[in-house]
Amino acid sequence: MLISHRHRFIFFHVAKTGGKSITHALLPYAHLAVRFENPLSRWVLRRVVEANREALARSGTGRESSDAAVRAVSKGIDRAAWLERRLNPRVHGSAFYAMGLKYQLREASSAFLESYDRTADYPDARSLSLVHSHAGPGYCRHHMPREVFDNYFKFAFVREPFDWFESWYYFLNKIWGSGMSDQKMSRAEPIAFELLALREATLDEFIETICTQPSVLTIINSSQGDPVLGSLCDGEGNLLVDFVGKQERLEEDFAVVCDRVGISVELPRLNVGAAREKRPVREDLRRKVKETFPEVYAALDYA
């Protein structure tokens, strides 16, 4: 999730819908929604950032000092996150905040510095400490100031449910086939670990399981609310966002978002699945997905 007070928008990142590309494009205009809560953790992070600020500002110029600064700050983030977990074990957002900081640091140090500065001064960051990177609006409206949630432009991107399930299948199989130990998988890829029982499933079997066992979708979505929609909707099926873009027309719908919030930025193509020979899918199974989740197709305006 990204939030911008300058442009008054909140982006809710639904996994496997092109969200990484959108996040990368919007990073210079937004900041991370949470921060470390413990003063010692914040002091550790601030100390390493200030010590390397000048070098970070030069990152990308090919200077060795900039690369060293990125590595130094990355280690500082890890130390601060470790302290936060030890000192504030109930604040679950710290791990996601650390991942977000490191992501920004890798992608663009200037964006990292801007985001870091804005978040440090954000007075409501404390109320968002339990928000994770894929949190939806149904969850966030209980953890952020109501005037922000009600008045900012809220948007998310979705994907046709059958294609979304298929994308998850190939993503999970990539993890399962990576040779990662179960212990490491439980920490690094908890969704793949919880669904290990489906490791040998074919695509047809995977989708059949999704249609008959909603608990699988609850694990995939890792969010409160409807198993497929997550928390994009309230309990009565009403959308909680102002705009829902489609992954199938990502560039066109992202242009609508940019026009709405008053920015102009090119959308990069990131995290695009490698070309693969798709297995033939039975049309009766495709129909089964639509018949199993008619309210999802209706809510997201898919025929």
Quick structural summary:
This protein has 303 residues and is an alpha/beta fold.
Could you please describe the fold and organization of this structure?
The protein has about 300 residues and is α/β, with parallel strands linked by helices. The protein has a domain of about 160 residues. It is built from 15 helices and 5 strands. A hairpin with a 4-residue loop joins β1 and β2. α3 runs antiparallel to α4. It is globular and about 60 Å long. About 0% of the residues have low confidence.
Topology:
Elements: E1 2-4, E2 9-12, H1 19-26, E3 31-32, H2 39-57, H3 64-87, H4 93-107, H5 109-120, H6 137-140, H7 146-151, E4 153-158, H8 161-176, H9 182-188, H10 190-194, H11 203-212, H12 214-221, E5 243-246, H13 250-261, H14 283-292, H15 294-299
Parallel strand pairs: 2-4, 4-5
Antiparallel strand pairs: 1-2, 1-3
Helix pairs in contact: 2-3, 3-4, 4-5, 8-11, 11-12, 11-14
**Would you identify the regions where 5 or more consecutive residues have pLDDT less than 50?**
125-130
DSSP helix fraction: 40-55%
Compute the separation of the termini in Å: 28 Å
Average residue-wise pLDDT:
78
User: Count of helices?
Assistant: 15
Structural class: alpha/beta
Biggest β-sheet description:
5 strands, mixed
Biggest sheet: strands side by side, in what order? 3-1-2-4-5
**Using DSSP, what is the number of strands?**
5
Query: What's the helix-strand series?
Result: EEHEHHHHHHEHHHHHEHHH
Q: What is the CA-based Rg, rounded?
A: 20 Å
Strand content: 5-15%
Overall spatial form: globular
Annotation keywords:
five-stranded mixed beta sheet; 15 helices; globular; alpha/beta
